[in-house]
Amino acid sequence: QKEVEQDPGPLSVPEGAIVSLNCTYSNSAFQYFMWYRQYSRKGPELLMYTYSSGNKEDGRFTAQVDKSSKYISLFIRDSQPSDSATYLCAMKATGTASKLTFGTGTRLQVTL
Amino acid sequence: DAGITQSPRHKVTETGTPVTLRCHQTENHRYMYWYRQDPGHGLRLIHYSYGVKDTDKGEVSDGYSVSRSKTEDFLLTLESATSSQTSVYFCAISESRGGSSGKGSYEQYFGPGTRLTVT
């Protein structure tokens, strides 16, 4: 079993929809959580970063962490075609220098 | 791409040949990483460096070596390329500051990638 599980999709939504992307994890030592966006044939780009349970907002994006359930989410409001990309979750455990464990990514398609 | 360049961007090589990929950063970040990205596996860490001449293995290090003689450059070498090493390779950097309040700064920033094909 992988330490981080992420549904690969693809997830197709109409423009303007609210998108929910999720990851579950098994390692309770994970304390730092990140979301990356990766466009086709590009490098991953950091979107959100959080280290605590609860919600963190940045514009149309909200990152949510539930450490008791080992579950993290990324919500995208008013989704746009430019949001079409693969979204990767990443996590870091305490005491592991700066090594991250990544989910396999969810491919999102926002249609007109 | 946060002041990170990778070269070459594309390479086709034959099985058994040595290959070196270069990562160059202008951010003066302490940590540098090499990942490979494959369908169904996501990003997997090959090797990383926590300073000049200080490197360590990641989860998929077999068949790869690295060197870091300057802060800004991190080289990944495939000593004898195999078809299983066909992949997209990404370099990443991080500052990895530990905060006094327990709030760390561990974000990693990625380069544009190198697409390697071993025939």
Broad shape of chain A = globular
The helical percent of chain B reads under 10%
| Helix-strand pattern of chain A | EEEEEEEEEEE
How many helical stretches of chain B? 0
How many beta-strand elements of chain B? 11
Distance between the termini of chain A: 37 Å
Q: How far apart lie the N and C ends of chain B?
A: 29 Å
Strand content of chain A: over 45%
Query: Which regions of chain A are unreliable across 5 or more consecutive residues at pLDDT < 50?
Result: none
In short:
The complex is a heterodimer of chains A (112) and B (119). Chain A contains no helices and eleven strands.
Can you put this structure into words, describing what you see?
The complex is a heterodimer of chains A (112) and B (119). Chain A has 112 residues and is an all-beta fold. Chain A is 0% helix and 55% strand. Chain A contains no helices and 11 strands. In chain A, strands 2, 4, 5, 9, 10 and 11 form a 6-stranded mixed beta sheet that branches. In chain A, β6 and β7 form a beta hairpin. Chain A is globular and about 45 Å long. The mean pLDDT of chain A is 93. Chain B has 119 residues and is mainly β. Chain B is built from no helices and 11 strands. In chain B, strands 2, 4, 5, 6, 9, 10 and 11 form a 7-stranded mixed beta sheet that branches. A 4-stranded antiparallel beta sheet of chain B has the order 1-3-8-7, with no helix packed on it. The chains are: A mainly beta (112), B mainly beta (119). At the A-B interface, β4, β5 and β9 of A face β5 and β10 of B.
